[in-house]
Every structure is written in C-alpha cells, then in structure tokens.
Amino acid sequence: MVAGTLALVALGFTAPAARSSASRVARASPVTMRDFPKPNVENTDNYRASTALTEKLKSLSAKGGSKSVAIVGGGLSGLAAAKYLVDAGHKPTVYEARDVLGGKVSAWQDADGDWIETGLHIFFGAYPNMMNLLAELDLHDRLQWKMHKMIFAMQQLPGEFTTFDFIPGIPAPFNFGLAILSNQKMLTLWEKLQTAPPLLPMLIEGQEFIDKQDELSVTDFMRKYGMPERINEEVFIAMAKALDFIDPDKLSMTVVLTAMNRFLNEDNGLQMAFLDGNQPDRICKPMKKYIEARGGRVLTGQPLQAIDVDSATGEIAGLRMRSGEVVTADEYISAMPVDVLKRLVPERWSTLPYFKQLDELEGIPVINLHMWFDRKLKNVDHLCFSRSPLLSVYADMSTTCKEYYDEQRSMLELVFAPCSPIAGSPVNWIAKSDEEIIDATMGELARLFPTEIAADPTWPSTLSQGPDGQARLRKFAVVKTPRSVYAAIPGRNKYRPSQETPIPRFTLCGCFTSQKFLGSMEGAVLAGKLAAEVVACRAAGEPTQGVKAVEETVTHAAGTMAPRKPRGVIGNDAVAFGGGSSLTSSAADELKAFDPAQLVPLG
C-alpha cells in the first residue's frame, strides 16, 4: 500500500462533474481546493484494538523500571516504536543514518526551496493505527480529507474519468457494492456478478481464507475462480500498481484481499486524505518533539557500522557506529528496511532460521516524479487510478495540498510503476536516465490528455501533439528508491518475521515484519507499536506474543548453510540506507557497489 506506501492515488487533468457514478467525468475548467470533514474513523474494531494497545502500553509504565532502548532507523516505524516506548515509561534513542527523518516518507528541499518527496503518500480511513497516532499527537487537523469516492482514468476516452461514488449513510459493505454496481463505464452487470462469488469467502472466512491465497498471483486467482479477464484490465491492474508498485501477474492475491477486506468492512475505510504539507515538518517533527519531551532522544546523521555480538553467548553486545562510538542499551530495536538489515546480520546469527528467512524478502523498486508545468492544468482535487502502462498513481499537488497550493501553475506528483522486472516491467527504469524517464512520462501524459500537453522538442514523445496542447514542463525531479517496501510476490507472506526475535533484547520493526496491514504507512506504524509492546512486556515481566514459527524448508536450509559474514552498508547516499534519491552519478556508483542488479540495462 503507497507507499508506501498504499497510495491508491492520482489525479487527472479533468474535474468530475456533479453527476452519479454511472456518468463519465467530463473535461472541466480548473478547480480549487475543497476539503471535507474528518469522517468517523473511530467506530471500528481495528481502531478500538489500536486504542486498547495504546492503553496497555501506558499501563505498563509503572512496571519493571525504565529501560534504555537503542532504535536503529528513524522512519515511521522507528519513530512509532520510540513514541510508544516513552508512553510505557522507557528511554529510547533513535539513531537515523540520514540527515532527515521519515525513511520512505522522507522529503527534502531543492535549490529553489521546493519540497521533493520520496513518495506520494495517502491516508485512508482504514488506517486505524495511523489515525490513532494522529489523535494522540493532536495532528488530525493536518489531514485534508477529500470526497468519498474513487476516480479512474478512462484509457479508451483520453482526458476523461469515471468514478465509484460512496453514498453517505449507507454502511459497509453495501456502500462499496452500490458504488461499483452504479458505475456503468468499467464493467458490465454480468461481469460484476461473475466477480462477486470468488470474493464471498473473504467476507465469510476472513483472514484464514485470505492468507491461503498467498501462493497465487492476482491473475492466477482470477483464472482459478473464473473471474472475467476484463476485471484485470479495468480494476486489478490499477489496484496492484497502487498497492505494491507491481503488475497483477506478479502480486500476491493476499495483498489485494487484505486491502479489500479492510475497505469492505469499514464505512469510511476508503475515504482518503492528503497531508497538508511536507512529511518531515507535519509528521516527523511532532513525533520527535513528543519523544524528546518525555525523555527520549532522536538523532540524525548516525549511520550504523555493525551489530556487535557477545562471543560467549551470541547475544547482542552493542551497536558499532561509523563514528567509532559503540552504543549500548538495555534493549535494541532494528527499524531498518529488510534489505539494509540483511547486510548487517552478524555472522553468528546468519545460520539461525529466523534470520535465514529474510533471504526470501526484498524491496521493490519504485520511482516518484515531480513535474512542474508552466500553467494550471485542468484537474481534480482528489485521487485517481491512472491505469496507464507506465504510471501507477499521481496527483496535482498544487490543488490537493495547502503547502503546495498554486492557482496559476500545476505540480504533478506521480508514481512511475512498475519500473523493474521483478514488478513486471520489461524495462529496468531504475537504470535509465532521468531524461528518459521524464520523456516516457510526458509521452504517456500526452496520450492520456491530448488537449493539455504541448508538443515540445525537448521531449520527443510529445511531438505528435496537436495545436490544442499548451502546457510545457518547466522543471522536474526524479526520485528513485531501488528497494522500497517488500515485494509482495506470491508465497512471500509466510517469511515475514515476528517483531520478537530469538535473540534476547533484540527486536525488529518495519512494515516488512509480520502484521496485518502489509507494506504501508499503516503497517510501519503498527509494526513499531508491536515492537514497543515486546520491549515493554519483557521489561514488565509480562508474556509476549512470542517468536513466529519459521517454515521447515527455511529451517533445513539454515541447518546446512555456512555462516555468512555481514556485507555491511556501503556509501552515504539515501539509497544505501533504503531511502529514495535523485541518484547522482556518485550515488549511482554507490548503488552499483552493493546492489549492481539495479543498474543492469534492460529494455
């Protein structure tokens, strides 16, 4: 989920007319920003469970004494872990390698002062732990809620869109069903009726049925249960690329069913909101302030060199930083991305099945684009699925976001996906130049919106444009994240590790760890909260959830393997630490040193 990640997002160049969801969204004049009241996100079982866990952590604050906790990684998961640890009376210190917080939601300013974001991130009503966190930090007013609807670009009718409209007052799952049934532009009634039966076990059996589908791709599931092929073209392509930057023939059906199960069971689960500004100032800074006000610390520019291990016991002995400092604490939490963690697993731990299973997980590449135009494009103040071969989702941030608001000129933020072979692309776009990526994107925008984009010799893909198109690109930024959220390809869910590890005093978090909200902002926050629970319960002498069982095949492989020395983290660019980067030539050299497959030309 974007983004990372579940950003079921995008915009179009045209605004939806105030008609029923059965109608097409026709081209319209530029629109202005309009926000909607915060929906009731609290009246759900998942939100109540999140609140209960918060209260449990607070109740443990008087038990077992205060522990020092070293947390490696200042993304959402590490910050969430620290926040809930101070609530539980402990003293965490967050060590972030980069000079910015946020991890996959980090952002920075360019020479012009414009914010460059790692990804386009959207907040959903069905994000109970994120909504609970925002309430606890008194940050709900920083979300700009949009109309409860979904918008899809119509591939056969360039420049036009169709919508799923959610009628107020109708409870889930009937509101979702009615929104789909009343739309007459994407699927026929017979196709909709064929689609429903395979999804009924999801509602009846719940997570047990959902987890069993992990061995199937979305395409395999469709064909196994006789779903019409056109559902793939009309809906699943958009969903797969938005959920995990991947094509449906590569994505585990468990991911799609998990998302659908959440959205179908919560009245306002699919209502979406933008953050009203950049993530570091609007989310990360308040989290840092909260943590430090309660005795914790949040440090940046603190890259980890190695995890030191006690030679006698095999337990963690400390964190050796690049600076030469050795950090010791009562407890340790890794909030590093899985690809970074794998490069730092100590040799002594490498043959343990728990750590061996990490070999089955890897981050998915994704590219985020910022494109500034010389005029205002016709747009919607909302999100939309592009259903484009190259573009996952995108939004005109000059209309949807207060900090970036501009009535005169548009700034599009787009997710370019899939962008690598593992995600289903025949081209390795990570290895392409920024100019090649932007030219391909301009060509796609010109095809989708022929009356908007000008023929511009700078971008050869636009040269077939007619005289109506006037908008020219005046500036762009390309952010490449070679290893983003874990690749949710079939058969991988069972390898996601528990937060608790077999190493005493060493805990994991991050959205790749085992939790029910997958690779997303929500998953990151929940994983951090669960890691805090492990530490707090252990300190208080309370029982923990335990270590998740490892697959027998992994246990066997671990028993026959030779110990591996850690490769370590090479370089100083954001990509070395699992983040996104503009990938300068020096950063590309660093990437080539530790992940050369990312830069192999293909297509």
TrEMBL record:
Membrane topology according to the record: Peripheral membrane protein
Residues noted as binding FAD in the record, renumbered to the chain: S77, E96, A97
Record Pfam families: Amino_oxidase (PF01593)
Pathways per UniProt: Carotenoid biosynthesis; lycopene biosynthesis
Subcellular location: Membrane; Plastid, Chromoplast
SUPFAM superfamilies referenced in this protein's UniProt entry, alphabetically: FAD/NAD(P)-binding domain
Residue stretches making up the Amine oxidase domain: 76-535
GO molecular function, one term: phytoene dehydrogenase activity
Documented EC number(s): 1.4.3.-
Major localisation: membrane
Catalytic activity of the protein: 2 a plastoquinone + 15-cis-phytoene = 9,9',15-tri-cis-zeta-carotene + 2 a plastoquinol
InterPro entries: Amino_oxidase (IPR002937), FAD/NAD-bd_sf (IPR036188), Flavin_amine_oxidase (IPR001613), Phytoene_desaturase (IPR014102), Zeta_carotene_desat/Oxidored (IPR050464)
Signal peptide limits: 1-22
Cofactor(s) required, per the database record: FAD
UniProt KW keywords: Carotenoid biosynthesis, Chromoplast, FAD, Flavoprotein, Membrane, Oxidoreductase, Plastid, Signal
Biological process terms in GO annotation: carotenoid biosynthetic process
Annotated GO CC locations: membrane
Homology family: Belongs to the flavin monoamine oxidase family. Belongs to the carotenoid/retinoid oxidoreductase family.
Protein name: Amine oxidase
Organism classification: Eukaryota, Haptista, Haptophyta, Pavlovophyceae, Pavlovales
